[in-house]
Task: structure prediction
Amino acid sequence: MAQLGLAILAGAGFVLALPPFSFLPLALASFAILAVLLRHASPILALGLGYLFGLGQFVPGLFWITESFQVDADRFGWIALPAVVGLAGGLSVFPAFACWFAARATRYRLPPAVSLASSWAVSEWLRGHVLTGFPWNLAAYALADWSTPAQAASLVGSYGLGFLLVLGASLAGLSFVFEDRHLARHRIVGAATILIVVAGFGAARLALSDVPAERGTQIRVIQPNIAQSAKWDDDARNTNILRLLLLSARSGPFDLLLWPETAWPGFLEEDQAARAVMSWLLPETGVLLTGSPERQTADDWVYRNSVLAIGPDGTVLTRYAKHHLVPFGEYVPWRSILPFPRLVESLGDFTPGPGPRTLAIGPHPYVGVAICYEAIFPGHVVDDAIRPDWIFNATNDAWFGNSIGPWQHLASARMRAVEEGLPLVRAANTGISAVIDSYGRTRALLDLGTVGIIDARLPRPLAPTLYARIGDWSALVLILLAWVVAGIRRRTPHLGPFGRTSE
Result:
């Protein structure tokens, strides 16, 4: 029973290693404890330990989701807690699988630290792809506020960086329980080597980083801070629109005006008068990027959650339609089977767009768009055919109130900037809006629950990173390399940090 309770506590401790807390030692301690718990565990016990670790991680880590059910509390308030527990229970299958596989692999003499780190990275990749995918709070995100080690994501992505974190923590933890002191020292050396290599690479990359641009595209980010309960209220419509216009019209030059997801409370493309008013806000070559729903009809209405590019004459220059939709928020999966209503009232389910696209917006740098939680998916925010110069993340985190959810969402977006080597700009309805450079560093920020604007220069893009070129294959190569090294060390007892166990 003590083991089971410790697994839950270790999972909960990992949450405190994530933003906004970012207490990194707890991430290392959590996975070190898990590795020690799994050392002598049977596959069945390992399955249970992994599941409980997952519950400890996901229940408090995702508790902010309950806020979304309180927006329409009369209809959905009762389901808030069961929904979070149910989601956490489903997601906990992935760490359970990881621990089960780690226990099985160890029995086939794969070193326990390598087996746990490998299976954990694979389970996180699966969590990001199975069904609709939900790669929230990956192990690597414990490093989001630690710019130096986070730079390794430019090589191996978040899945690969998570592998390195779990491997280093597991090596350190297991070094304290091996009877063979010689082998224990080698494991400490292995953990230290990972730390030195990751930190050394990050320090070198940041030392060679560009200085902030003094010339170039000037952007203005609008954060209107409109409560979700008022966002689609007919009585508040004019007040909401006026707030957006007044913030946009503040003195100061800009080339690009950026509004949040679904900032316009209606179908903007059909509202020529509204677009004419917006054109008065724009300079001669200015462009407004704004979230707005769209609809089209053939035999039936098709609705999309989109970002429109509005030119200085009020015309729609181009558009992007969200392709990774939120289940039960923007559509109901398996609607013919599941009798559940959507959390968001509208005329119908949204239809996904074709995928990541690079938009040409007049004379300005090419932009890739990620709407809301599309930014949490590693390797799926940039058009592979035409690389953009920056990423625009239009989002509406008003659903989650003043919780840790928006901070976790921001951490995901920052890791996309590091992986792709591209600046990322967030326009968030209630926060957190931010300008992030190509190294994942925050250059400007508007906190939760504030009304305001950000005027800033658009940071410069970098050449495509290794991860931008080959994606998650880099993480797979890293894992296979660790297996090869482990195989070599296994044939030479007591040699190197990946030496075989003394069991």
Summary: The radius of gyration is 24 Å. The first helix runs from residue 2 to 15.
